[in-house]
C-alpha cells in the first residue's frame, strides 16, 4: 500500500471531501464558517496515529486547529460498530494512505457540519458518510465490508478472548506472588516442629501445588 502523500494532495483531498459533503447537506456553500475552513484549521501529524474533531477547543500543541489527522493511522480504515447496512471488519481494511486520509477527513468534517448546523453529535452519521464515500471513490473495497451482524459476532469473539487473557494474567500474578512467598518462607513451612500450619499457610501451599496440578487435593491431617 502506498504510504506517501504528495504535498498538493492535502488540499486536493480536503476540497474533494468538502464538495462531496456539500452535495449531501443543504446550505453549506452559503455558510461562512464552512467556506473559511481550510488546511490552516487542520493539524496533520505525519508520525501520529489518532485523529479527532475538537469542537470545544483543541490541545495546546494544535494551536487552535479544529481537526487532527494522524497519517500513520490512515493506512488502516476502520468504522465504529454501528447498526448500518455494512461496516469494516473489526481489524479494519488496509488502504492507500491518501485514500485513508480522505476517508478520515470526511469523518471529521461531518462532525464540523454537526457543529455548524447544530445537528446531534453522532458517530452513526459520521460512519455512514465515510463508508458511502469510500464505496463511491474506491468501490473495489466493497467485497471486504461485512454486515452489522457479522461485526457484532467479531466483537463478541474479541471480548471473549480479552476476558480469557485478563483471567490468565490475573492467575499468573497470583502464581508469582505464591512462588515469591514460598521462596521467602520455605524453611518455616517445612519445619513441623514450629507447630501446625495456619490457614494462610495451608492455602498458599495448596495454591502452590495447583500450579502444577489444578485438580490436586491437599490433606493436612496426616
Name the descriptors:
elongated, two-stranded antiparallel ribbon, 6% strand, single chain, mainly alpha, 222 residues, 50% helix
Description:
There is one protein chain. The protein has 222 residues and is mainly alpha-helical. The protein has two domains: 7-146, no CATH class; 151-212. The protein has helices at 7-22, 32-36, 97-116, 123-137, 148-189, 199-212, and strands spanning 42-45, 52-53, 67-70, 76-77, 93-94. The N and C termini lie far apart (69 Å).
Topology:
Elements: H1 7-22, H2 32-36, E1 42-45, E2 52-53, E3 67-70, E4 76-77, E5 93-94, H3 97-116, H4 123-137, H5 148-189, H6 199-212
Parallel strand pairs: 1-3
Antiparallel strand pairs: 2-3, 4-5
Helix pairs in contact: 1-3, 3-4, 5-6
Main β-sheet: number of strands, strand sense, barrel status?
3 strands, mixed
Overall average residue pLDDT: 86
General shape: elongated
Number of domains: 2
* Topology as a string of helices (H) and strands (E): HHEEEEEHHHH
Number of strands: 5
Physical arrangement of strands within the biggest beta sheet: 1-3-2
Radius of gyration, in Å, reads: 28 Å
Counting DSSP H or I runs of 4 or more residues, the number of helices is 6
State the end-to-end CA separation: 69 Å
Strand content: 5-15%
Low-confidence stretches: none
Helicity, as a percent range:
40-55%
Oligomer: single chain
Q: What is the SS-derived class?
A: mainly alpha
Amino acid at each position: 500500500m502506498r504510504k506517501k502523500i504528495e504535498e498538493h494532495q492535502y488540499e486536493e483531498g480536503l476540497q474533494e471531501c468538502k464538495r462531496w459533503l456539500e452535495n449531501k447537506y443543504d446550505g453549506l456553500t452559503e455558510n461562512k464558517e464552512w467556506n473559511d475552513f481550510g488546511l490552516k484549521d487542520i493539524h496533520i501529524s505525519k508520525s501520529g496515529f489518532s485523529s479527532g474533531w475538537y469542537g470545544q477547543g483543541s490541545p495546546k500543541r494544535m494551536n487552535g486547529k479544529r481537526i487532527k489527522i494522524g497519517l500513520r493511522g490512515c493506512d488502516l480504515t476502520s468504522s465504529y460498530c454501528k447498526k448500518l447496512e455494512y461496516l469494516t471488519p473489526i481489524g479494519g481494511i488496509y488502504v492507500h494512505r491518501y485514500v485513508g486520509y480522505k476517508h478520515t477527513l470526511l469523518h471529521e468534517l461531518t462532525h464540523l457540519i454537526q457543529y455548524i448546523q447544530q445537528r446531534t453529535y453522532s458517530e452513526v452519521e459520521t460512519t455512514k458518510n465515510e463508508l458511502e464515500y469510500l464505496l463511491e471513490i474506491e468501490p473495489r473495497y466493497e467485497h471486504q465490508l461485512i454486515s452489522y451482524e457479522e461485526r457484532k459476532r467479531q466483537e463478541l469473539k474479541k471480548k471473549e478472548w480479552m476476558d480469557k487473557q485478563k483471567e490468565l494474567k490475573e492467575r499468573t500474578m497470583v502464581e508469582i506472588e505464591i512462588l515469591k512467598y514460598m521462596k521467602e518462607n520455605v524453611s518455616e513451612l517445612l519445619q513441623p516442629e514450629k507447630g501446625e500450619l495456619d490457614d494462610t499457610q495451608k492455602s498458599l501451599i495448596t495454591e502452590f501445588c495447583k500450579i502444577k496440578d489444578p485438580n490436586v487435593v491437599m490433606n493436612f491431617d496426616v
